[in-house]
Design goal:
Structural class: mainly alpha
Distance between the termini: 60 Å
Helix content: over 70%
Strand content: under 5%
Radius of gyration: 17 Å
Order of helices and strands: HHHHHHHHHH
Number of helices: 10
Oligomer: single chain
Length: 227
């Protein structure tokens, strides 16, 4: 039986992703105990993150070798711009934060490092670099959403229930699965040296995801403020 590349990746990222579920920010989402000021910081930072994340899918579409892959990237781009970012806008409205204010948010040091890493790799490499760069975010959020959905009360009387619903939804699961399928298609027949390189991109972006959770939990911006 042929082992899918994403099965190989899972063995590497599973311990990292399980650590997300132990992180106080993620636990706070599932338990409904997360301080709302911390969530507001996540809202703003993740919104500006998603702007660059959307650019990655646009880069992927431009680098795709065939129409089928172009269409997949376009669908994933739509998922970010119209589905995921809409959740952020709805939550922001609850806090009295306008769409303009969200877009004007200054990316933190961690957000800047993370998106710069993905954009740099994607612009200077082939389509396989793009897929490896975007995979951890899409797949791990779905992993978190489906894990939290099993927690008692996570989908009930919880201010963050729509967050859990969104990332555990059939619609978002399909987007995550399409990204995984894309990864498996693009890596088919590639030499071990190339597979190992792509695997490290997924591992590093998974580590960046943990750093992002840490950054929003601590409400970090930049270590030294400019005047």
């Amino acid at each position: 039986m042929t082992t899918l590349f994403t099965d190989r990746l899972w063995k590497r990222v599973e311990p990292i992703w399980n650590s997300y579920l132990e992180h106080p920010f993620v636990k706070g989402l599932g338990e409904g105990t997360l301080e709302q000021e911390k969530f507001k910081h996540w809202l703003k930072q993740d919104y500006v993150y998603l702007i660059d994340y959307a650019r990655l899918f646009a880069i992927g579409s431009s680098k795709a070798e065939d129409l089928e892959k172009m269409a997949t990237f376009a669908k994933l781009l739509h998922g970010v711009l119209d589905v995921e970012m809409d959740l952020h806008r709805n939550y922001a409205a609850d806090f009295g934060i306008s769409k303009e204010e969200l877009e004007a948010s200054e990316p933190s040091a961690v957000t800047t490092a993370y998106t710069s890493y993905m954009l740099n790799l994607s612009q200077r490499g082939g389509v396989e670099n793009v897929v490896a760069s975007v995979l951890a975010c899409e797949w791990s959020y779905n992993f978190i959403g489906k894990s939290l959905a099993k927690w008692p009360g996570a989908l009930d009387d919880n201010f963050y229930s729509s967050w859990v619903e969104m990332y555990s939804s059939t619609e978002f699961t399909e987007l995550a699965e399409e990204t995984k399928q894309l990864m498996n298609q693009i890596t088919e027949g590639k030499p071990e040296q190339e597979l190992a390189r792509l695997e490290e991109i997924v591992v590093k972006t998974s580590q960046f995801e943990y750093m992002f959770w840490d950054m929003v939990e601590k409400k970090e911006d930049w270590p030294v403020k400019a005047e």
